[in-house]
Amino acid sequence: MLATCQRPPMGWNSWDCYGASVREDEVRAAADTIARLLKPFGWEYVVVDIQWYEPGADGSVYHPFAELCMDEYGRMIPAENRFPSSEGRKGFRPLADDIHSLGLKFGLHIMRGIPRMAVHSIA
Q1: 4 in a domain, yes or no?
Q2: Which of 1, 22, 72, 111 has a beta carbon 3.0–4.6 Å from 18's, enabling a disulfide?
Q3: Contacts of 106 (CB under 8 A, 6+ apart)
Q4: What is the pLDDT of residues 36-94, one digit of tens each?
């Protein structure tokens, strides 16, 4: 039996507007707009896409071997200069909690595997 759904997943992805350079204030503005204007029509997702861990990310250009924000285990953490609520190792919890308080769902793009820079930085 085929599963059916009433509508496709509906939401906003930061890549579509900002490429790799999205900042927290831009995510919050998008979430506020979605909650106010689009939630009544079924929109429910706010997704922070790739490179949220690169302090110098700009546009849709990838910077080979750029400095990345990682914890002591080589796991990506948000760049605090772009996501200030993550300061003090809070991660995306404060931003996600605020998005959830708007009745929306928070999503995050995560690459699988070991980050190249986690290995490069110890080599």
Answers
A1: no
A2: 22
A3: 46, 47, 48, 92, 95, 96, 99, 100
A4: 999 999 999 999 999 999 999 998 888 888 889 999 888 899 999 999 999 999 999 99
Position 120 confidence tier, pLDDT thresholds 50, 70, 90: low
In whole angstroms, give the CA distance from residue 119 to residue 20: 22
- The boundaries of the domain holding residue 108 are 11-120
Residue 3 lies in a domain: no
pLDDT at 122 over 60: no
- Looking at the structure of the chain, the number of domains it has is 1
What sign has the CA pseudo-torsion 90, 92, 98, 100? negative
**Beta carbons of 104 and 28 less than 8 angstroms apart:** no
Query: Whole-angstrom distance between the N-terminal and C-terminal Cα of the chain?
Result: 52
Give the number of other CB atoms < 10 A from CB of residue 46. 28
We report the CATH number of the domain holding residue 114 as: 3.20.20.70
